[in-house]
Write a structure and sequence with these properties.
140 residues, alpha+beta
Length: 140
């Protein structure tokens, strides 16, 4: 059985770690729940798609408002377990995020993706996303 749910309990948050680690290998399992809880104070939410009681796709997101875009849902993290890809789990989770954004009166949904993540870019373009800007950063 498949379900999509928000990670609210520490158990649910920790269940997401093995999949999130594939995208964010710098994370430590022992500190993961604490880090997610800290980010939740800033509006971060964690959602996961579960199959047979195992998280197979995970997304972290926030809702923001800014002058440039109005109210929008920003996806911080989106990853499908590498052994479960090409089974439409990413598409289903992405569609859930779109519906969540619509239900929360967002005008846009956006994300940043590393320039080297070609497979992710193909996925985003297949989901009808557009490349709308360049993201610049500097280490401090």
């Amino acid at each position: 059985m498949m379900s999509i749910q928000l990670g609210e309990s520490n158990f649910q948050i920790l269940k997401c770690f093995p999949v999130m680690y594939q995208l964010r290998p710098h994370l430590e399992q022992a500190k993961f729940v604490e880090q997610v809880r800290y980010q939740m104070k800033e509006g971060y939410q964690l959602v996961f798609l579960e199959v047979e009681q195992q998280a197979v796709a995970v997304a972290g997101f926030r809702i923001y408002t800014c002058l440039a875009s109005g109210k929008f849902l920003y996806i911080d993290d989106l990853v499908v377990d590498e052994l479960k890809r090409s089974q439409n789990y990413g598409k289903q989770l992405f569609q859930w995020l779109i519906e969540y954004a619509i239900n929360h009166d967002c005008e846009h949904l956006s994300l940043d993706s590393g320039v080297q993540r070609f497979a992710a870019h193909r996925f985003y373009l297949m989901q009808r996303m557009s490349i709308t800007s360049h993201h610049f950063g500097i280490e401090l």
